[in-house]
Amino acid sequence: MPKKSLLIPGDFPPEVSGIATYFHEIWKFYDYSENHILAAKYPKCIEFDKNSDLHTIRVGIPTGSSPLHKIIKSFIYTIKAIQLHLKNKYTVIHCGQVLSSGMTGWIIKKIFKIPYIIYVYGSETYRFGNNKYLMRMIKTFLKEAEYIIPNSRFTMDEFLPLGIPEGKFKIITPGVDVDRFHPQSLEHELVEKYNLLGKKVLLTVARLDERKGHDKVIEAIAAIQENNIVYLIVGKGREQQRLQNLAKEMKIESQVIFCGYVADDDLPKYYNLCDIFLLLNRQTSVDENLIGDYEGFGIVFLEASACGKPVIAGNFGGIADAIDDKKSGFIIDGTDLKEIIKTIKHLFKNEDICHQIGKYGRQRSVQNFTWESLSRKLIKEIGE
Question: What pLDDT, in 10s, does the model give residues 33-42?
């Protein structure tokens, strides 16, 4: 008999994040009628849900990421999940975050003897490691989960020291929609908008956070001293003012273009504008609220590869699962300015290598990272 599940993802569209994309795409291949999603209310969520086949129930929750907000979220999710279970009789709960919904899964298991599954993305033990109460909760929730789904081997390795058996982990990486993200001709309106004709174009698609490494790309461009290099930054975030000041300080503000938020439907156009995609990820060390945070995988690398672009990534986190080093891109020290400059120059000088890397990356995305294949793998691994 098929299992009837409730997913509590944490992030879910129309919210824009890697987690939101992960669950939305994975759940497209589940039985809509038997599997429900309990998600937060966001602006435009009513319109989004009307155009979706997924059975999504919305609930108002705090949007902050502090421990207090996570606890409040947990109680709200738990009350609503209990109500939904009494009505629908679920056989498994999918918890999209180890604290906010992990507590819900744990409580429901205690009350109704229903198993739960927890998804982890990396850095949880780094960010909360100094809080013995939160770490005790994380360890309890993970140990009592039926399965734990990390997004990479690196993420799994973070949690093994907690004493959790390796067999409980089932690695399911993010994927990419290879029909939407594919090589295509340049969007002439965007070329004119950003004055890209005849330019060498670098691109980063990511929140403007410290660990994404935008600052190192700006420093590299300033050091290379070529006026025909343009750096497109797609995304918004807390680092924008600092990055704008940095570009101005280095006198390359005309070469660094902040594109802001770009709708998902338009993202393939931006990937296809660039010659090289970069995300020089590193572990957060300055922002006190996010110390220890890192890139657990990096969906954007797959999106760029699916569009046939060579990629450059920092070497901290779960990047080795997203990139085949020296084949679909280069994994380098994202804090080493000399290595960054050397890699950018190498690719700019060798069009044939760029083409070869982009072609391989596209093939690899199609063969190994379609959302449907990953969804089927998840269903098989957890016995649904």
Answer: 689 999 999 8
Into how many domains does the chain fold? 2
Q: Is 44 left (phi over 0), alpha (psi -120 to 50) or beta?
A: left
Give the global pTM: 0.89
CA distance 343 to 227: 18
Note the Cα 236 to chain centre separation in Å.
15
pLDDT tens figures, 42-87: 888 999 999 999 999 999 988 766 767 777 888 999 999 999 999 9
* Statement to judge: residues 109 and 166 lie in one domain: yes
Token reading at 107: 């409580």
Q: Which amino acid is at 169?
A: F
In this structure, are 259 and 332 located in the same domain?
A: yes
Residue type for position 142: L
- Structural domain of 254: 188-368
State whether 233 and 353 are in the same domain: yes
Residues 231 and 218: beta-carbon distance below 8 Å: yes
CATH number at residue 356: 3.40.50.2000
* pLDDT, tens only, 99-158: 889 999 999 999 999 999 999 998 777 777 678 888 999 999 999 999 999 999 999 999
Q: Which residues contact 36 (CB under 8 A, 6 or more apart)?
A: 5, 6, 7, 55, 56, 57, 84, 88, 90
